[in-house]
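[stage:ingest] chain + small molecule (NDP)
[stage:ingest] validated
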Amino acid sequence: MNEHPAPSIPQLQLNTGASIPQIGLGTWPLDDDEVERAIVDAAGLGYRHIDTAEKYGNEVGVGRGIRATGIDRGEFFVTTKLDGKFQGDDRAIAGLEASLERLGLDYVDLLLIHWPLPQRDLFVSTWRTFEKLLERGLTRAIGTSNFSPAHLKTLMAQTAIVPAVNQVQLSPQIPRDEYRAFHDEHAIVTVAWSPLGGGNRLLDHEILRQLGEEYGVSPAQIVLRWHVQQGIVPIPKSKTPERMRANLDVFGFELSRDDMLMLDRLVGGEKAVDPDVDGH
Ligand code: NDP
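[stage:predict] done
[stage:export] tokens:
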């Protein structure tokens, strides 16, 4: 028996009309066996949104985990990401087909270009292939990851479909205001990777400890509330059921305006990736 009834997780609407659960489960760096277990635990707690990537090497385990839950595939929202080696020349077709094969799924809910790799200048042609994959129904939505507003402008000037999502490194330490303003202007949903700071020092910050005490929640819950209160979709990774449960339980309290402003003071102190040079 599950002691904690699955909380109902708000959904945000994508520009395709589909909805995305506002909290997802990150799966890097879990291996196939770990991720299978994590998905079974997470689904029992109410998670339905799973984030993986070709590069994580765990798509087989993700598929196994989903099947092991016994829950209809249609209830899950599964994201995978195309690695740089599949960019250009319609290589994304083979890239996605191989991911689907490993996942044991007929389609994913969201396919992302993992990194723009602007020095290779292939993301526009890759996106045109993504548009074909969307039309074939092999993915229900297409989006980007680690794209700056400048990369998105280049993409959108030359292609027909606006990305449904841009998944970027984002936390109170790395708030990426300029990205979020651009996303909001174009109805692109912001998904946050390393929303908790990626297991580094963010959660030890005194401000988070104080706010946690005030609201009767943990520092991680304060940080995830900061995300969801601004319409961001965080994808915290945990392999620990108690933390998974806490990470979903952020819809029953609201941070005051002053406390949201207090969290702005956490900015800095962690290295932000640079989408112009980083990636694979
Ligand atoms: P997160 O910010 O999600 O942090 C994960 C770390 O926080 C783990 O060490 C986890 O430990 C710990 N943790 C989780 N919940 C809690 C909690 N309630 N209290 C205390 N500690 C907690 O960082 P990630 O870098 O993993 O990012 C999340 C996901 O984003 C990845 O798993 C991946 O799916 C995606 N990602 C995407 C990238 C991209 O380029 N698009 C790049 C990097 C990540 P434990 O598991 O032991 O509980």
